Each structure stands twice: as C-alpha cells, then as structure tokens.
C-alpha cells in the first residue's frame, strides 16, 4: 500500500530542481501511506513530476522501489495497491519470454501494460489500486482506479498544472493550488455525510470514479473524460435479468471456491498479516477461511466498548477460540475513543461524517502494532443484501404507496410535530416520497432540504438522483443494493477503511470485494440472499460449514459509537463552539436557524438528530483545520 502524487506543468522554462522540490513536498504529505521509502521521477521537457511513498508489502528489496521503469524504458509507473493475481499473470508473461528482476506485483503490472496495452491489462488484473503511468514514447499520462474503488485518486487543474494524488492534502503542497469550496459538493455532502464521486469538496478537483481510467496527452494538454473498463450497473442488470439456475447446494459450493480463492490470494504477503474479527457474519467468515488455509494460528483483532449495545468483543472472542486464532482484543474507553476526534479532519482531508470512522481507526491502530496487512469483511452487506434497511424499505414502500399522497403528507406533518423515536422520525421523513427509489434516497439522506440549510449551492446529479443513471432492474431490493454498491460502498465504507487504516500505515484487503465474488453474487437469485426477511442467507449458510451456528446467529449489530449521547454530554462544549450562531453566520456556508433548531431538539432529547449534527460538526472541524 502506498501514496502517489504528481503533476504535469504546462508552463515554459521548467526547471528540474524546482519540479523535484514541488513533487517532493506533495509526497511528504503522504508519509503515513508509505513510511518505508520514497522516490521521485522527473521528465523535465514534459514538465512531468511523479512521486511515490512506499509501504513495503511484496518484494521488500530495492527491486520493488518506485517510480519503476519498464524494461524498454517506455513506461514509468507509480502504483498504490495490490494486484492479487500477479503470480498467474507473471507466468503468462514469462511464457511470452519476459524476464523479471524482482518479485513485486508492480513489476508484473508494468510488464503487462507494455506487453498487452493499458486497457487490456485493466481487464486482466484483479486487485485494489490507483496508479499513474507515463508513456514516454507517446507522451501520455494515464490514471486508473480499481473496479470497486478501494484505492483513491483525485485529479484536477491548478492554474496551468494538472495535478493528481492519493489524498487532497497533497494538492495543498503545490503553490498553484487555490482551494475554493465547491458549494454544490457541500450541498450533496449535507445529504449523505460524504462527498460522492466524481465530486470533491474543492471546485475543479475530482475523484476518478471506480473502474475507470483517463488519459492526458501532452500534445493536446486536455485530459480525456474518465472511461469505464468494467461496469457494475451492467453486471447487476445482467445478473438480475438472467440469474444462474443451480441448486442452493451447488451455489454454496461454488461460492466457497470463489471466496476461498479470493482469501488465499490476499494472504500473499512478505510482511505479517492478520484479520479484523468483530464477531459478525462477514469478518467471521473471512477469518475462518483464512485459518483453514493457514499452517499456523492467524492473528485476529477486535476492539470492545464499555457502553451497552456497542460491544461485539465477547462474541468475537468465542469465535476466535473456536477457530484457534491468535486473538487480540482491546477494550477502548469512551475517553480513548473520543481522543481521535481532533485528528479526524487531518485523517479525512475532505469532510466525512460516518461515526464508525472512530472504531475503525481504533481497530486499525490495534492491528498495526502487530501486522502490516489485515483482511476485512467489507462488502458482504452490499453484495449479499445484508442491511436491515433493504427489508424495511421494501415493506415500507409496499405499505406507503397504498396511502393517497395527501394523507401521507398530513401524517408526516403530524409525526414531525411530536417527540418521536429515531425510527418514527425516519418514517415521517420518507412519507412524502414520490416512488420507491425516492423513498430509498430519503432513507439514505440526512439533511434533506439543502436550499434551507445552505446559503448557496445546489445538489449536482449523482447516482441516486440522476434519471439517466437509473438501472434497468425491476426488483426494489436489487435496486437498493445496486445503489449502495455504486455510491455508499466506495464513497463511504471504503473511504472510511482506507483513510483510517492508512493513517496508521496498515494495509487492508477485502476478499468479499473481489470482482469475481461480486459478479457471482449478482448472478445469484435474490432468494439465495434473503430468507424470511433476513439477508446474507447464503453467507450465513457458508459460515455454518466453518463455525457452529449458535456462535454467530444473533441480530446484526453495526460498528458504531454512542455519538448522540456524547454530543449531549462530554462533546457538548466542543460542539457548541463549532455550531455557534455568530460563527456560522460569519463563515457564510450555512443558515444557522435549522442547525440551531435541530441542536436544541437533540439536546432536549425530543429528537435524535445525531447524524445530522455530526455531519455539520465534521464539516466545521474540517473547515477549521484546512481553511483558516
């Protein structure tokens, strides 16, 4: 795992020393992503500068050093991530007569690009990655990102320089970068508590979408629009239209083979590795398969909390004991958990407000004390219908749209005017939905009226509100899963995991996000994923072949914290300062009235606005860190 940064400066009179100094400054902001080494490469005539920070995982020798030049010296690459099928690709390339200096996956990736072309290589490789490759012959810079969007890459123009980097903080090290908050991106952030691709919080800076690449030919000086090399919408549509016709037992066996291969490929490492084990279905299954293929007890990690309802450590410990893993658990006090909050704006250098960022950081820090790589269970809910909200939204939609719209509006208004629980509160918010897709959008929204909340800014079209991006999928649950896989997964879940783990220099790998697992999941009929209103049926059945059902058969528990309670007590002073009415007016982004109203209602316990308030607080804390 690594950090990458670079730029092409179109100005005249490019000086090699100046280019080197600038890209080194960008690289130094990413030390946490790659503490084991660094390198730069300059093409003075082209105005090109490339920088790499290395977290050594495969081939710890100098043969794995980057930037890496191909044998013919036509291509040079900086690469963040892992290519899991690099050994099989290496054998194919060796049969073509290619020889390799070292044992890194980077060298295999570079050789494949030279032998097969960039686009064919993107179809052949299986991994998580973001990379930049410079074609010295054609004078073209290419940027690419993995299918599911595990690894980040931002890009954009700053004056006459085209910049790119793993994280936004690297842009700030370039003197041409002039940060201006994109008010439209802020509008969509307040709805979802994250900024969805292709937008970033800064005007003119974008995220390369998952499964995409773009090219920057020096002769034109204009980058191409991102091009897809794999399409999750097409995969989902085809799978829903023509699901496989096999018995459940056959599907179970086939999934076991595919997932086991994904786990085994992710166990290849030249440094110590382990697994997150929360005690839930996904992490337990990954840990069980790892242990099956390991010759010694694998290392597993879990954190626990003192607060009731937020602790899975006891369940994880029982599963670890059954599997025989080398298990480490750490109980984090509320004060210890909160101590990371001041660092969140630096870890997430773009506003991000999923409160599970806090426990994810703590479990990453725990694991990093012992290992450099950890496997996780990310992807099981989105791929196998694990979220309770799918079943709830299905039932709710079936019931609500039998009620005439005027009556629904009247009921919504009544519920909004009385103290309610969070579930009733949500019900009142979705009653005005115009159809089922709009219902799910409202269900996944926090601040629903950006026009009232923001002084300026209009939500751009994104996956959940763009009619042109609506999939051709009949079943509502499948449409919800598709939306999550296209937006919530890469822009929330994977951002959270990447930034918190890389903040402590830990690489995380997610076998359930192997594209072969994802494609197989979409080819399964829905009844193999949901039975009796409970999701992940086939994953549960597979886990039962590894672990006795009583050890894991319990209600799903999110990886959360009691941030709503904290905001009323130990975090109240911190929150009050950030939500001060005069401060909000002076900064000019938000209208104070709706924020202060929700804050008052939250403090009085008449409403639970914890997620809405957390979103504003995370923006305010980010703004204080980066914009003052």
Structural topology:
Layout: E1 2-9, H1 16-28, E2 37-43, E3 48-54, E4 68-69, E5 75-83, H2 86-95, H3 105-116, H4 118-124, E6 127-135, E7 140-145, E8 154-158, E9 161-165, H5 183-192, E10 205-207, E11 212-217, E12 227-228, H6 232-241, H7 248-265, E13 273-276, H8 281-292, E14 299-305, H9 313-323, E15 326-332, H10 334-338, H11 344-347, H12 357-368, E16 373-375, H13 380-383, H14 388-400, H15 405-416, H16 422-430, H17 436-443, H18 450-453, H19 476-503, E17 507-509, H20 515-523, H21 537-544, H22 563-568, H23 572-578, H24 581-587, H25 592-604, H26 610-626
Parallel strand pairs: 13-14, 13-16, 14-15, 16-17
Antiparallel strand pairs: 1-3, 1-9, 2-3, 4-5, 5-6, 6-7, 7-11, 8-9, 8-10, 11-12
Helix pairs in contact: 2-3, 3-4, 6-19, 6-20, 7-20, 7-21, 8-21, 12-19, 14-19, 15-16, 25-26
Characterization of this structure:
Helix content is 43%, strand content 15%. Helix 12 packs across helix 19. Strand 6 and strand 7 form a beta hairpin. The protein has three domains: 229 residues, Glutamine Phosphoribosylpyrophosphate, subunit 1, domain 1 (4-Layer Sandwich); 210 residues, HUPs (Rossmann fold, 3-Layer(aba) Sandwich), CATH 3.40.50; 67 residues, no CATH class. It contains 26 helices and 17 strands. The longest helix is centred in the C-terminal third of the chain and has 28 residues. It has 628 residues and is α+β, with helices and mostly antiparallel strands. It has a six-stranded antiparallel beta sheet with strand order 2-3-1-9-8-10, covered by helices on one side. A six-stranded antiparallel beta sheet has the order 4-5-6-7-11-12, with helices on one face.
């Amino acid at each position: 795992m690594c950090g990458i940064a670079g730029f092409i400066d179109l100005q005249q009179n490019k000086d090699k020393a100046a280019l080197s100094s600038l890209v080194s400054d960008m690289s130094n902001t990413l030390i946490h992503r790659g503490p084991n080494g660094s390198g730069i490469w300059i093409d003075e005539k082209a105005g090109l500068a490339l920088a790499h920070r290395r977290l050594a995982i495969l081939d710890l020798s100098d043969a794995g050093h980057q930037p890496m030049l191909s044998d013919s010296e036509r291509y040079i690459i900086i690469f963040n991530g892992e290519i899991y099928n690099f050994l099989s690709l290496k054998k194919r390339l060796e049969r073509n007569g290619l020889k390799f200096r070292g044992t890194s996956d980077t060298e295999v990736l570079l050789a494949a690009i030279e032998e097969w072309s960039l686009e064919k290589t993107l179809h052949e490789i299986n991994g998580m990655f973001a990379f930049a490759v410079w074609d010295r012959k054609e004078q073209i810079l290419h940027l690419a990102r993995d299918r599911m969007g595990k690894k980040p890459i931002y890009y954009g123009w700053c004056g006459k320089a085209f910049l790119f980097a793993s994280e936004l903080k690297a842009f700030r090290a370039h003197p041409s970068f002039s940060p201006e908050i994109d008010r439209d991106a802020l509008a969509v952030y307040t709805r979802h508590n994250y900024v969805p691709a292709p937008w970033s919080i800064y005007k003119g800076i974008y995220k390369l979408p998952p499964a995409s690449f773009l090219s920057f030919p020096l002769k034109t000086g204009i980058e191409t629009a991102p091009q897809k090399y794999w399409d999750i919408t097409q995969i989902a549509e085809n799978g829903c239209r023509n699901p496989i016709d096999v018995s459940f037992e056959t599907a179970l066996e086939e999934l076991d083979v595919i997932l086991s291969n994904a786990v085994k490929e992710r166990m290849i490492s030249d440094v110590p590795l382990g697994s997150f084990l929360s005690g839930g279905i996904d992490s337990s299954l990954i840990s069980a398969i790892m242990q099956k293929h390991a010759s010694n007890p694998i290392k597993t990690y879990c954190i626990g909390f003192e607060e009731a309802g937020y602790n899975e450590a006891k369940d994880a410990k029982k599963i670890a004991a059954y599997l025989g893993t080398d298990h480490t658990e750490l109980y984090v006090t509320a004060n210890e958990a909160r101590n990371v909050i001041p660092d969140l704006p630096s870890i997430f250098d773009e506003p991000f407000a999923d409160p599970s960022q806090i426990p994810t950081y703590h479990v990453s820090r725990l694991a990093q004390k012992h290992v450099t790589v950890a496997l996780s269970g990310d992807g099981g809910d989105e791929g196998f219908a694990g979220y309770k909200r799918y079943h709830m939204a299905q039932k709710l939609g079936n019931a609500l749209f039998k009620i005439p719209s005027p009556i629904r509006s009247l009921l919504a208004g009544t519920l909004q005017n009385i103290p309610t629980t969070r579930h009733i509160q949500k019900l009142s918010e979705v009653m005005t939905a115009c159809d089922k897709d709009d219902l799910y959008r409202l269900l996944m929204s926090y601040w629903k009226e950006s026009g009232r909340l923001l002084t300026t800014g209009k939500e751009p079209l994104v996956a959940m509100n763009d009619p042109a991006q609506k999939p051709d999928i009949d079943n509502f649950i499948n449409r919800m899963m598709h939306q999550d896989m296209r937006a919530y997964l890469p822009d929330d879940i994977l951002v959270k995991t990447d930034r918190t783990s890389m903040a402590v220099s830990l690489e995380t790998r997610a076998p359930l996000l192997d594209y072969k697992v994802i494609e197989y999941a979409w080819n399964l009929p829905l009844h193999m994923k949901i039975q009796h209103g409970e999701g992940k049926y086939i994953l549960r059945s597979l886990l039962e072949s590894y672990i006795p059902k009583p050890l894991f058969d319990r209600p799903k528990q999110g990886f959360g914290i009691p941030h709503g309670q904290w905001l009323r007590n130990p975090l109240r002073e911190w929150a009050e300062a950030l939500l001060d009415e005069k401060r909000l007016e002076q900064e000019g982004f938000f209208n104070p009235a709706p924020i202060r109203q929700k804050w008052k209602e939250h403090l009085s316990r008449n409403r639970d606005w914890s997620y809405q308030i957390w979103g504003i607080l995370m923006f305010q804390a980010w703004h204080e860190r980066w914009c003052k």
